[in-house]
Amino acid sequence: MPRGKAGGKYDRRMSFDDVKDERMLVMVDKLSVWMGGILGETLNRENLIIKIRNGGPLCRLAECIQESVDDFKTANEDNEDLPTQSPQGCNLTCGARSMEARQNVTKFLDWARKLRVPESSLFLPDDLLKLKGKMNVVNTILAVARRAKDCGMSADIDAPPKIANAFIGLEEKFGKKFDHTSKAFGKQKSELKTVTTTLMSGSAWKIVQQKIDAILQLPGKPSYEIFRV
Question: How many CB atoms lie within 10 A of CB 76?
């Protein structure tokens, strides 16, 4: 489905074309790479809102983070107020405008509160369900991501993306493969070829060197050493 389209009709609110601040777009890109890596999906600024609008992927994200939260609670004391389980009973395949979608979003937000995401960082359900504030949604998920890092989750949203991911993105955008570049960065470097600068005794350059040496052997002066290794 083309970007920003719902039911065949273009909806600008679903894309980030209207966002002019480059810093915000960088945040969206970082979030898409991070969340897509956890969920095993290809997410980007063109399809992020479309993919998560029914709240199902948010519940899946919470389920993945909850595993790290459980391990963190086991290893650390005084963390009893952290969530004990991820959102339960979510409908992952419901329509974006259904009551089940609203329930999914509400369950995710309740879970995020227990994760100690500040109330000021939480989006309102209609920011996503009715597309009233997509950047509010992005900011909330970013706050969740950083709380997940605090709870020991290995997937760090602030870490730079792997070079391989960058080339995958280029391949998808331009329809070309970058096998030579991927191999150069992705595999172990081969040993550099050793090049010697010593001239062979029978080479043409060695003969030239000898003639120049003879010319420069002036009377009363020591032999000049040039072109010697």
Answer: 11
